[in-house]
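Notes from the 1:1 (GR / supervisor)

We went over the backlog. Supervisor wanted to see one worked example end to end before approving the batch request, so GR pasted a single chain during the call. The sequence is below; no edits were made to it. Supervisor asked that the structure be written out right there so they could see what the output format looks like.
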Amino acid sequence: MGVSNVAAVLGVFDISLDKLSDGELWLAQFFRGLSDGATYASVALALVLIYKATGFINFAQGSLALLGVYLAYVLSVERGLPVALAVLCAMVASAVVAAFVERVFIRPFPPDHVLPLVIVTLGLLLIIDSAVGIVWGFRTRSLPSMFPSGAPIEWGIAQLTWRTIGNLGTVFAVVGLLSLLLLRTKVGLAFRAVSSNLESARLVGIRVGPTLGFGWALAAAIGTLGGSLVVPDLLLEPSIMLRVLIFSLAAAALGGLDSMVGAVLGGLAVGLARNLLVTFLDLSELALATAVAVILVVLLVRPTGLFGSTRVERV
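Structure output shown during the call:
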């Protein structure tokens, strides 16, 4: 392919050779992608927890996280609490709300009836998002970051900020704590048993309903934490977590819907891909469409994702 043909191809995607050869720009978007990817990974972790236990995707996950983030905003900005403490309180509050939602709206349906449960979670998404807009309005707000400003590592325009380091460290810490919880505690063992085989868990005396409620509460708390990580980079408004949910769904599908490690790696991959595509291909208007395309391609090529386990069913 000649130089003129290469230039024509680059022109179709509005790519400049100056951008492609700018090492500082590549590094800057790499750092930004890591920060965004960490937030997608945290929400993807929440999706994976519910999917492991129930076999369906909780579309209300982002809305429960949105409610928690607004509570964190009220406690930190309006009530003056330290941001980290406000986020912790919001995580507890959103966990309580999620446990209530699971008990009232989810538990009455048989766990193997997936379609009604999906419809219920879609309805909850619309209700919670609308309620948040009615209570707090639709104007944008700003939530401070839990991490200090500044960048300990700089190279021209590329900066590895404390926020990026904090986001990554938080996600890996959450994965470690979740692993300890699931592997070393009785409630974690019960949750793993329910995730493995719901009927067998019920037969050996495990209380399936409260265990699933615990999973919903834990997922909501993690989702609130993820939302609190992403909002300082954006502006808080009622639709913000819907966009995050789509990218997180892509991350969970890519890594595997039942793999926590896959959720983290998928989140980082989606964050990096999103920033690089927006920067070098000028696809900011198609970012969400690209995430949906990732979900479709993964489901068609490898439905279990890169790290997901294949379900074996006895016939």
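Supervisor's comment: The chain is about 70% helix and 0% strand.
Batch request approved.
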